[in-house]
Amino acid sequence: MSTLRRLISRRGTTNGHGDGGTPRPSASDSDHDEPVDAPDARENSAISSSDYARRRRELMALYRDLRALGANAFLDVPNITVIGGQSAGKSSLVEAVSGINVPRDSGTCTRCPMECTMSGESDSWSCQISLRFDYKQDGSKYATPETHAFGSILTDKTAVELWLRRAQAAILHPHIQYQNFYTKTEDRLKNPPADDRRLSFSKNAILVELRDSTLTDLGFVDLPGLIQNDAPEAIRVVRDLTVSRITARKTLILVTIPMSDDLQNQEAARLAKEADRDGVRTIAVLTKPDLLGPGATGSRQTWTDVLEGRRFELKHGYYCVRLPADAERAQAITKTESERRATEYFDSTQPWRDIADRSRFGVPNLSACLSRLLVSHMEDSLPGLRRQVAGLLEKCSDDLNRLPSPPVSDSEPAAAVLLMVTEFCRAFRAAVFGDTEDHKAFVQTNRQHYARFQADIKSTVPDFRPFSGHTRDGVEPVGPLDLVDVRQVITGSITWELPSHVPFDAMKSLVSRFTGQWRNPSLACFQAVVKSASDFLSDTLMDKYFAQFTQLKEYIRELTCAELERCRVEALKTLEKMLVLERVPLFTKHGSFARIIDYVPLLIEHEFNQRMAERLQPMLFEQLLSGSDVSVKMQELMAEDPVVCAQRRSLKTQMERLSEIKQKLDGLT
Q1: Which of 46, 49, 21 has its CA nearest to residue 34?
Q2: Which end of the chain has the least Cβ crowding within 10 Å, N or C?
Q3: For 15-19, 90-94, 310-314, 571-575, which range has the lowest pLDDT when averaged over its residues?
Q4: Which of 331-340, 382-391, 476-485 has the lowest mean pLDDT?
């Protein structure tokens, strides 16, 4: 059992309507006489109440810290998200709960999320507004959210509305420095100049931290109201934002439902139902009960059934609130007076006065319930949050270790570059001569090319069949030869030879028919080995030695490819000369094709691979050390790959933020 649940079980928490009602007063809290001999009961109750209050403050402090750190970008942090239609009374509800005035205009006013946290641990009222940017201007997410205090701490409650307007304007103009909005007037904010880059809505959030002794320890996220009569794109954006915020398993959905409309016709209620099929995360707030006149008997009965749990049941039930009308807002009545008028209305108006569970009416009861639910949710989530943070820290560490080591600041960049190039060239030479355990695959791949070449050459051996009458399949120029074929070649070659003498031209014709096939396999083998060398240099060795230095890698690649091409051209010329030797004159000490099977691979190795290995380092050194300002050139080449640098910076920032979050979580026992 969690710490909080033990404390709650000692106090008593429910009133029989779901698990979110107002706690039943303990014996020490009631007005009934206590037995004189029961001091332990009073003492235990007082201690329990004190412990619960302390634990609640600790958990809410953790909640505020996690939200400020942007922990929701990494973890499923418990939260309460307020949703509702454009005219559902959502803004009035936010004002009633928080005690501040939020911007109000005709049409859509709230255009980004507002995350509000409230603390009763203060002797005086204060408000700190901040901006948290979870998303970049192009819509992609920051690896780590950026949070900026927006202005100084406010101590004048009447200034909040204007500063909230300024903060929202800053969120909707991410291309403008947010400090530029500190001095904007209300008129300027309501009538801004044309700006094609201004956003209609944003997923980045305004953070509002309120402190006052009269506040309930609570936190919630207020989303833009769902709209229907607007551009299709605007409707989709707001709906998608709402859905994305309420699908998380740890999110409690506070759906605002005006009683002036049918429950089943309201999109906010439908979206909440889709996100929370079993109704275990949803708390419904019924607004505008005073719009149901005495004649609306059917609607009144329906809402009575809902409040008493007979229809559309939710685990945490329904609350009903009466919020100040426009005329009352114009009078600037106090929060206390507003709550007094609401209590008087519910206690004197049917059918609300006849509903037995009075904890379901009024903003104070709603706020108390939300506070308990959020605190309980935080307590239950602590073990899981700690596991998530530990896992994310481990993953960040692994990802960081997989990146190349950061470059060491070197006063001699030329020496560092030449050392890397030396190692690169040494590795290639060792691979060519098979002197390395790391890259034996290079020689093994080339041996496969040479084995294939041998098989191709062997396939050109004459298939002589010393008898007559062989029928050849098809008309291929080379294939099985019988006596008839050979006699035809001899007959076609006779000029003034003596009788029974076989013309040399006949022998030449027969031999050339087969040796003429050697060129294509030889060239194919050569090209395969060239490609193998190119891939090995470009993909394997360059990635190993220069991966984090983009400019150096590309420079070495360009020079290496050029040298590789020069070696290829020179080796190809030598190979072509050798193939010519196989045509004229016809001469051999071998009985067959053995020499070409040996000579072609040896020529490729000596004239291409080994020549490339010998020439690579001198060529690279010469090019690197050429020019008037070698030091500047080397410094530029040693610049780390900006992508790798950005990845390392992002991972380190994430680890720092996650470590802060872990520290906050571990600090609460």
Answers
A1: 46
A2: C
A3: 15-19
A4: 476-485
Flag whether the pTM goes above 0.85: no
Above 90 in pLDDT, residue 1?
A: no
User: Using one digit for the tens of pLDDT, what is the confidence trace for 536-559?
Assistant: 999 899 999 988 788 899 999 999
Nearest to 241 by CA among 253, 254, 224, 255: 224
- Roughly what angle, to the nearest 10 degrees, separates helices 550-581 and 611-624? 140
Q: What is the pLDDT of residues 172-229, one digit of tens each?
A: 999 999 999 999 999 999 998 999 999 999 999 999 999 999 999 999 999 999 988 8
Taken in order 558, 563, 568, 570, the sign of the CA dihedral is positive
Q: Are strands 205-211 and 218-222 parallel, antiparallel or unpaired?
A: unpaired
Q: 21, 251, 273, 314: which is closest to 115 by C-alpha? A: 251
Q: What is the mean pLDDT of residues 602-611?
A: 96
∠ Cα 359 367 315 (to 5°): 60
Q: What is the pLDDT of residue 509?
A: 65
Q: Return the bridge partners of 147, or none.
A: 132
Report the mean per-residue pLDDT for the chain.
85
CA 268 vs CA 239, 279, 306, 314: distances in Å: 9, 14, 17, 15
What string of H, E and C letters represents the secondary structure of 603-622? HHHHHHHHHHHHHHHHHHHH
Q: What is the rounded distance in angstroms from the CA atom of residue 60 to the CA atom of residue 440?
A: 62
Six-digit token string for 280: 């275990």
Residue pair 226/238 in contact by the 8 Å Cβ criterion: yes
φ and ψ at residue 150, rounded to 5 degrees: -105, 95
Q: Which amino acid is at 1?
A: M
Contact 221, 67 (CB under 8 A): no
The span from the first CA to the last CA of the chain, in angstroms, equals 14
Is residue 4 a contact partner of residue 55, using CB atoms and an 8 Å limit?
yes
Q: Do 446 and 529 touch, CB atoms closer than 8 A?
A: yes
Report the alpha-carbon distance of residue 446 to residue 432 in Å, rounded.
10
What's the helix, strand, coil split of the chain in %, to 5? 55, 10, 35
**Would you say 164 and 208 are in contact if contact means Cβ atoms under 8 Å apart?**
yes
HEC states along 304-326? Answer: HHHHCCCCCCCCCCEEECCCCCH
Would you state the pLDDT for residue 134?
92
Q: Which sign, positive or negative, has the C-alpha torsion 277, 280, 285, 286?
A: positive
Please indicate whether residue 40 or residue 228 has the higher confidence score (pLDDT).
Answer: 228
Whole-number Cα distances in Å, 114 to 111, 188, 372, 378, 455: 9, 22, 21, 20, 74
* Torsion region of 214: left, alpha or beta (phi above 0 gives left; psi -120 to 50 gives alpha): alpha
Given pLDDT bands bounded at 50, 70 and 90, which one contains residue 257? very high
pLDDT at 14 over 50: no
Q: Residue 451 half-sphere exposure, CB side, CA atoms within 13 Å?
A: 6
Give me the helices (H) in 69-201, please.
Answer: 90-98, 160-172, 186-190
| Residue found by looking up tokens 């560490």 in the block | 397
Q: Return the C-alpha torsion angle 591, 596, 598, 601, nearest 10.
A: -170
Instruction: Using DSSP bridges, classify how beta strands 126-135 and 141-149 pair: parallel, antiparallel or unpaired.
Output: antiparallel
The beta strand positions in 61-140, using DSSP E, are 79-84, 114-119, 126-135
For CA atoms 304, 309, 313, 316, give the dihedral sign.
Answer: positive
Lowest mean pLDDT among 17-26, 333-342, 569-578: 17-26
